[in-house]
Design brief:
Elements (H helix, E strand, L loop, with lengths): L2 H16 L22 H17 L2 H17 L12 H11 L2 H15 L25 E3 L1 H16 L3 H18 E2 L4 E2 L2 E3 L12 H17 L4 H21 L6 E2 L9 E2 H17 L7 H12 L21 H5 L7 H19 L3
Antiparallel strand pairs: 1-4, 2-3, 5-6
Helix pairs in contact: 1-13, 2-3, 2-4, 2-13, 4-5, 4-6, 5-6, 6-7, 6-8, 8-9, 8-10, 10-11, 10-13, 11-13
Length: about 350
């Protein structure tokens, strides 16, 4: 695929994300998940994608947007601390490192200390796993695969930035705990959640975007921290098992179904982008067999075809709590979302890196 084609798509997707707003959907959460100018997890993922875009292009307009976004949210007052509201901090800590802004640094320090506080911080559940507490709901006993991307990546970055190895060790542990309870050995895929109260995986659904948080998150986690060989191999072996399964489930058009092993469920772009990004980056880094390059390239082409003329990524499922059966996920509505834009940016940027590699 030509670099010019990808570059043009990157610019359109990035531009659309900067002005994303709710066009009429009746949202059910305390904080809206669509409008870019709100502090919640979808916006946090969106900011992360935009920062990767800045890193690749050094586009000053994007950097200015990010700084103005955080300055505005800080002046408004930050929301309650929970797993999902930690998501924007993954970008804020990068801005702290880049700019040295003392207020950014203070916030990242405060929130990372909160995560680690055993008495007044992020709630722990079984095996001291991070409970997936969200705005307005502690989700007693619940862990979700989403937590790895929303909170654990930030904690790892904070550990390196602030020189606190205990943070990094905690991040490693959380990856291992979540694999322990969410990885489905017979299929090589992940369940969405686990309940320590009822000792079950809810509906035992192998949901697309949930699996995508591991595929794209693990390759970035390996960029953030130095890992012992045994842990690194374990995390990558888990990814390789997952990617082997994903390759078999990829649709002819390069997409994946929102319930990965249910072809009657709709195909979904954010998971395709997350899988494609993780696979392409893992091949480039030497973590995956080069034979999987075609899987990532098919995903890249499929995601490109979901970008409309205005740069808005189509066929993205709305925010999704854990469900009790596959039908719950099949009924989640489709809507443009900031994380759809962001994950699309990630696969496009990685596709651009491949396109620029010498043949």
């Amino acid at each position: 695929m030509k670099a010019d084609t990808i570059t043009e798509a990157i610019e359109r997707v990035s531009h659309a994300m900067k002005s994303m707003k709710n066009e009429g959907m009746d949202e059910i959460y305390p904080v809206g998940l669509i409008d870019i100018h709100l502090w919640e997890w979808p916006q946090g993922v969106g900011l992360y994608g935009m920062y990767q875009y800045y890193q690749e292009t050094k586009d000053e307009g994007t950097l200015q947007f990010l700084q103005e976004w955080f300055d505005a949210r800080i002046s408004e007052g930050l929301p309650e601390k929970n797993v999902n509201t930690c998501s924007p901090l993954l970008t804020l800590i990068s801005l702290s490192e880049l700019t040295g802004n003392p207020e950014y640094i203070r916030i990242c320090d405060e929130w990372s200390r909160w995560i680690m506080d055993p008495e007044n911080g992020l709630i722990r559940t079984g095996d001291h796993a991070f409970q997936h507490m969200i705005t307005g709901d502690p989700n007693d006993g619940q862990i979700l695969i989403d937590t790895l991307f929303m909170t654990v990546l930030f904690l790892a970055r904070a550990g390196v930035y602030f020189g606190r190895p205990d943070y990094v060790e905690e991040a490693k542990k959380q990856f291992l705990i979540h694999i322990k309870y969410l990885f489905d050995r017979p299929t090589g895929l992940f369940f969405h959640g686990w309940d320590f109260n009822g000792r079950h995986n809810y509906g035992m659904v192998r949901w697309g975007r949930g699996n995508g948080w591991y595929t794209c998150g693990i390759v970035d986690f390996l960029d953030m921290v130095e890992l012992e060989r045994g842990i690194k191999d374990y995390l990558l072996d888990t990814m390789r098992s997952q990617v082997q399964a994903l390759a078999e489930l990829q649709a002819e058009d390069g997409m994946w179904h929102t319930v990965l092993d249910d072809p009657t469920s709709y195909v979904e772009t954010s998971c395709a982008a997350a899988f494609g990004y993780g696979i392409l980056k893992a091949v480039r880094r030497g973590y995956l067999d080069p034979a999987y390059l075609t899987v990532g390239q098919k995903a890249l082409q499929a995601v490109l075809e979901q970008i409309d003329v205005n740069g808005v990524v189509q066929q993205v499922s709305y925010g999704t709590p854990v469900g009790q059966d596959a039908q719950f996920y099949k009924d989640i509505p489709i809507s443009p979302m900031t994380y759809g834009q962001a994950l699309t940016l990630l696969i496009l940027i990685e596709g651009l890196r491949h396109a620029r590699q010498p043949v």
